[in-house]
Design brief:
By secondary structure, this protein is an alpha/beta fold. Strands 8-9-7-10-6-11-12-13 form an eight-stranded mixed sheet, sandwiched between helices. It has a five-stranded parallel sheet with strand order 2-1-3-4-5, with helices on both faces. The N terminus is likely disordered.
């Protein structure tokens, strides 16, 4: 990750936007444009924007929204809007009703919306999101890792990227996005590291204090991590509002957020839309490449690049795979002897210190330059 993403290296107080003994002061009220003719969405948006302290401009259709579109801090578009004006910024959030189901995410992909808010369930999340939209500090950069096929190495890559970033002096959190993945912590360390896991945030509502959030997390390899429990016991899964609050806290607490998203539809919906960049992983073979193409169709319209794992006698050229998917090739994950065993034994951080791994991770993160 180059200077254009992080800027100069900041102190912890600068990063959090406050000193520990100061109260958070909101920025100017965000200018919010709502484009919808749906009376229900209009009323819900008025209530939510009022709670967030924003300034709302309402346009019943695209024609009425033309003058204020590009000047708005946030553009909300209702699910009744099916076409956007030419040469205008993509909408920030697509608003819809829970009864619209999967169609909302398909419409968001067509329109290029950055996020989806299903009302009334996402009302609290949207209010929190809008309340900080007027702040000039955008928060941490979020990278999501998605395996295009099983065994592509997404979790391994996520761990090694977080380790490399932390080693470069970037405050980093690694987030486990797959509740059915067995717990990312088991690949990071064999120690029982104190700190909160995802189920501890199941009852979370509203804003999380970034200092408290940062201090509550386990740390290994120089980075904080938030994992699903690596145990057989049943646990409570946080709902969408709780996950959104945690993601907002992560952005406000760290310069880099690395999310091991998982491959399920639920995981993609929950985490992929919060990313600035997505890394799609595949192995250098035909069938996995086809599987990766299918996953690519399910991803939001974000900055996406390809990472290919290893090679071998029967391998397909990585650049050829990237060209067939229409993605830039960001790196080739080296085959490291003992990586599978290291995953099982919680020793991936030891392997992450190898020169070939560090060179790969720094290349993907664009860390070869110097961060001021």
């Amino acid at each position: 990750m180059s200077k254009r993403h992080f800027g100069r290296r900041r102190s912890s107080n600068e990063l959090l936007g406050q000193a520990a003994d100061e109260s958070w002061m909101p920025g100017e009220a965000a200018e919010i444009l709502l484009v919808t003719g749906d009376a229900y969405l209009q009323e819900e948006a008025r209530r939510i924007v009022a709670a967030a302290g924003g300034s709302l401009e309402l346009a019943a259709d695209v024609g009425a929204a033309m003058n204020g579109w590009d000047g708005a801090d946030v553009v909300l578009v209702g699910s009744d809007i099916r076409e956007l004006p030419p040469r205008r910024q993509a909408p920030t959030v697509l608003l819809g009703r829970s009864v619209e189901g999967d169609g909302l995410w398909r419409l968001a992909a067509v329109l290029g919306a950055e996020r989806v808010a299903v009302l009334p369930e996402a009302a609290n999340w949207l209010a929190e999101y809008l309340s900080v939209s007027g702040s000039p500090e955008p928060g941490g950069f979020v990278i999501g890792i998605v395996g295009g096929c099983g065994g592509a190495g997404a979790s391994t890559t996520a761990i090694w990227l977080a380790q490399a970033a932390a080693g470069h002096g970037i405050s980093t959190i690694l987030m486990d996005g797959d509740p059915w993945g067995g717990g990312l912590e088991l690949a990071i360390t064999v120690k029982d590291v104190a700190g909160l896991r995802w189920p501890d945030f199941a009852e979370t509502r509203g804003s999380i204090d970034p200092v408290q959030f940062r201090d509550s997390l386990p740390v290994a390899g120089g980075f904080a991590f938030l994992s699903w429990p690596g145990t057989r016991e049943a646990f409570t899964t946080p709902d969408a509002g709780s996950v959104a609050a945690v993601m907002d806290a992560a952005r406000r607490s760290f310069e880099l957020v690395v999310v091991d998203i998982g491959r399920s539809e639920e995981c993609l919906r929950t985490f992929a839309w919060d990313c600035e960049r997505i890394l799609l992983m595949t192995t250098a073979h035909l069938k996995p490449a086809v599987a990766a193409a299918r996953i690519l169709n399910e991803l939001p319209p974000l900055d996406t690049g390809l990472v290919v794992r290893g090679g071998g006698p029967s391998a397909v050229d990585a650049q050829l795979i990237a060209e067939s998917l229409g993605l830039p090739l960001l790196g080739i994950l080296p085959e490291i002897r003992g990586a599978a065993a290291g995953t099982e034994l919680g020793r991936l951080l030891d392997l992450g210190r190898r020169k070939s791994v560090n060179r790969f991770a720094r290349g993907v993160l664009e860390l070869n330059g110097t961060i001021e």
